[in-house]
Amino acid sequence: MSPFLYSDSESDRNSPPIRFNRTCLKNFFSVLLIFVYLLLMAVAVFLVYQTITDFREKLKHPVMSVSYKEVEVYEAPGIALYPGKAKLLSCEHHLYDHIPPLKNPGQPGENLCVTQTINYTDPFTNQIMKHALIVKGPREVWKRELVFLQFHLNETEQDFSAIDYLLFSSFPDFLASLNQTKFMQDCERSFSSWKFSGGFRTWVKMSLVKTTEEDGSQSVEFRQETSVVNFIDRRPAADHGDQLFFVVFEWKDPYIQEIQDIITANPWSMIALLCGVFLVLFKAADFAKLSVKWMIKIRKRHLKKRARELNHIS
């Protein structure tokens, strides 16, 4: 036998295993790609579930946003005082935190404030009649405008003496209200009340907080800082049985705090993410489909070739 024929026979004997190994290797990688596709699909399904879960949680728990709005002039607030048996001696407006010395403490003085008295039924019991003195509050925050009030109470059998008050957002709204009784009852339901004691000067610094609810409605809340100093009573000893009340109302600063609940969940970003995930799944599925078709085609070709070789041998 010639070397040339021997070489061809050797090549024929060695070729099938090499081709078979290549086919097995291609099949192995095709199966591996299918497993990779399944893994990607599982990750994509998890991402979709996690995205929807996060979106629902953000809808349930909005984030609180706090901002500060600077104002030149405040709308005059309403100061509702409940003096009981105490009498108003004086009410004055002063600027730049300056209160002149008291000339005749305990004696009637000037009333330079806009005031109005009103009687209404307690909104919580509907039995007790309440007598309120409504005073127009300060406006000029940059000029440090303040309202200084002085009350006098004759001898009392009580161990402690105090005057209640509450703040509401707009004195002009009170004047313009057609039903001032209902207006004050609504204010008492909405706003908290505080006290200032006799024998002291109570300095109240107010700040305003506006809150926007999820339905778009707004609520107003007053916050305050108080400082108390003792009144040095230089009146005759016979007058010391009477109680004097001093209270000052002033704006703390020219900033209104605005609170709003913000939903950080963005439906468009979620839709974009879901579209991207589904696009990847579609491409991966298409690739896996082509891989399976290619495997079937290679398998059929291999079987045909093997059948042809067997026929040739036979």
From TrEMBL:
Membrane topology: Multi-pass membrane protein
Subcellular localization, as worded in the UniProt entry: Cell membrane
The entry's keywords: Cell membrane, Chloride, Chloride channel, Ion channel, Ion transport, Membrane, Transmembrane, Transmembrane helix, Transport
InterPro entries found in the cross-reference section: TMEM206 (IPR029366)
Main location: membrane
GO-annotated cellular components: cell surface; chloride channel complex; plasma membrane
Record GO terms (molecular function): chloride channel activity
Pfam hit, one: TMEM206
Catalytic reactions on record: chloride(in) = chloride(out)
TM annotation in the entry: 28-49
Organism domain of life: Eukaryota
Protein family membership: Belongs to the proton-activated chloride channel family.
Official protein name in the record: Proton-activated chloride channel
